[in-house]
Each structure stands twice: as C-alpha cells, then as structure tokens.
Amino acid sequence: xxxxxxxxTGTAAAxxxxxxxxxxTTPSAYAEGAVTRPESHAWPASLTSPGTRPATGAAAxxxxxxxxxxxxxxxxxxxxxFGTALTETEPTETGLTExxxxxxxxxxxxxxxxxxxxxxxxxxxxxxxxxxxxxxxAGTRPGASPRPEPVKPPPGTRPxxxxxxxxxxxxPPTGTWPERPSGHVGTGVGGSAGPGTAQLATGAGIxxxxxxxxxxxxxRRRTDGAQDG
Amino acid sequence: MDRTxxxxxxxxxxxxxxxxxxxxxxxxxxxxxxPQPSTAEAFAAGPEPRTGSPVAGPLGPSDPxxxxxxxxxxxxxxxxxxxxxxxxxxxxxxxxxxLAGWFENGTPPGTRGTAIVAGxxxxxxxxxxxxxxxxxxxxxxxxxxxxxxxxxVFAVDxxxxxxxxxxxxxRVYGPTAHASLRxxxxxxxxxxxxxxxGNVVAYAHLTGVR
Lengths: 229, 210
Description:
The complex is a heterodimer.
Chain A: H1 4-25, H2 28-35, H3 57-61, H4 64-70, H5 76-81, H6 83-95, H7 108-120, H8 127-133, H9 197-228
Helix pairs in contact in A: 2-7, 4-6, 4-7
Chain B: H1 3-28, E1 64-69, E2 74-81, E3 100-103, E4 113-119, E5 141-146, E6 151-163, H2 169-173, E7 179-191, E8 195-209
Parallel strand pairs in B: 2-3, 4-7
Antiparallel strand pairs in B: 1-2, 1-5, 3-4, 5-6, 6-8, 7-8
C-alpha cells in the first residue's frame, strides 16, 4: 500500500506529465512563439494576462484566431473549420508589423495572433520592415504556403521606420565603350588607281567601228569610181 | 551615193576614229592615285584640338544623317556601320559611290568621345565619296547633320596616313575628353595584289553647333 505522500507525489507527477504532453502536442507555431517571445520587446500589458494566453493546446484549439494566424500547413482541419475567419482577418496579418502593434486597436486575441506571427519571423532590427515589403498579401499568406525567409538588409542601410526607396536600374556606364574597331579600314578597291578599263573598252569599240566604216566607205568609193569610169 | 554624201560620211568615220584613239590612249595610262596628305598636315604633338581653335561643348546623343565637307565637295548621306568578324570597321556598300558610314555602336558625332565616319576612296569604276580626303587642310570645316535637327560643326586638326600594318588603333579610335570626329578612307599607295596599303585619317573636333 502506498503512502499518501507518494500518492500525492505520483498524482502531481502525472498531472505535470499531462500538462507537458498537452504543450508538446500544441503546434509549435501556435503559442510557443508567444510564450517564448523575446523579453526585450515591450508588449501590451493585455498580452501578459494569463487569461488571454493560450497556455494549453486545448485552449488554443478552441480559439478561432490562432487558427486564422497559423494556417493550413500545420492544422488542415482548423483551416477548414475557420475558413470564414481566415478571410476576415487576412488584411490584419498582411499589414501587421512590430511597429504598428502598440498602436493597433486590437483585442487581446488579435494582438496575440500578431505576436505569434512576429515571434515566428524572429523580429530583428530592420527585419520587420522586410515583413511589410515581403508582400505577404492574398495568395501568399504565411499559413497557406511555406513562408518565405525574410531577407535581411545589410545593417545601416536604412534607418528604422523610413520608407524604402524604389529600386532604380543601374546607371549606364559612362566614358566606356561597349566596343570599338581595331585595325585599318578597307574603303577602296583601286578603281581610281588602276587604268581606265571603261575608257579603254569604249575607245576600242569606237575605233573598231570607225575602221569598219572607213573600209566600207573606201569600197563604196572604189565601186562608184569603176562605174563612173 | 553621190560624192557629197561619201565625203560627209568619211569625215564622220575620221572623227570617230580620232575619238577612239584618244579614249584608248587615255584609258591605258594609269590614273593618278587619290591625293595624299603631306607631313605638314600631321599633328605636331598628339591628337589634340589645334591651338586657337574653339572647342564646343558636346551635344546629346543623336544619330547622324549626312556629312558635308565643303572644301572637297563632299555632301553625302550616312549609313550605320558595324564591325567585321576580325574586329575591323565595316564599310558602306560599294554600290553607292556617294555614301559614307558611321560606327553606330560607338559615339554619335557631336557627343563626347570619338565618332568615326568612313567612306570609300574609290570603287571599281573610279573615285568615290572620300576620294579627296587626303587633300584636306588643317582648319577645314566638316558638318554633320543629325537626326535631332542640329548640325555639328567640326574643324580639322590634322590629316595623317598610316600603313595597314602599323595602324594606330588607340590614336584613331581611342576615347577623347571632347567631341571628336575621325574621317577615314583608304590611301597610302595601291598594290594590284593587296589593294590599298594604308588609310588616310582626318582628325577633327567640335567647334560649334547650328
């Protein structure tokens, strides 16, 4: 027979095990991020309230908003169940950034969603701006497809909170030639340097015609002279 | 046939025979080659604008359409030229004697850099558009009409002749800090076996715009 102390200890251990299992079955993207968010961020006081935090898997699954945020890849059944809610909350998830969070007039659950999303994306200085630029809008919701890796800009390229400048095409190089000729140029065939073949041919033709004409005239004259004589 | 008719026809044949003799004699004599520049027209130092000649600011890019050189009575349209497989400059089609070309992948005349214009000295029948290029003198005016409606006016700085084997690529084609022009044709003597032995190059720079 067990002693009451051991019974209590065993029951407490069983309860702790159950709680641990419940946490382990909770999708990692759910509230893990919210629970393990960086302590350096100043979050709204409402988020620190234990009653609003989905501390267990059961609590999270009964909350429609986390399903909205987490998408179909982790919990397909939830995405089907909360399809309507997905549509309604899509603008929120596409536009949220860490800077906007304190100003957003959201209820505790919506803020929790945003918190989970941000913690999942590992907010770093500058990275939240990439989130807003990453076009996470319709068709590219994080929950609907593999989330793109945020591209971190080189440090110091843009102060936080400023609008990114539009990309400009690189300026064409100046002072350089794309190509240039080499060597001499063949701009002549020698028609002006050689003998005038055309003149030669024409002169020879005229000379030949004159010779034929002269011979005919001499013959005709001889014939006329014989007839006269 | 009466005597008068015979006599007139005899005169006609005689004149034709004389013309034939003259043509044969004239055609048999080798023609004088295209004029070549003297050493006095060469650069004294390097390919730079002549001292005292104004240097105008370069224009924006626009294709050239016509070249005029009043000193040697050149007034010809321009066509685009590319490069041959060996990297040498292409030439205008030989069918049209009065046609010059410009290197269209390079600098348009009037813009900063070296614009290149080439023309034939002759074709199989005789002299062509740049036959007299070698007779240009320093200071001669060259005008290039452009597609933008402006006329780039250049002044000749020097006229030089080079052997084919020693053609100075960089001097002729190399970039310049101002708007320059090179006019190129064949010259330097002629060989029946190998053709022309060199090139005549006239160097000019932009002096004004109309």
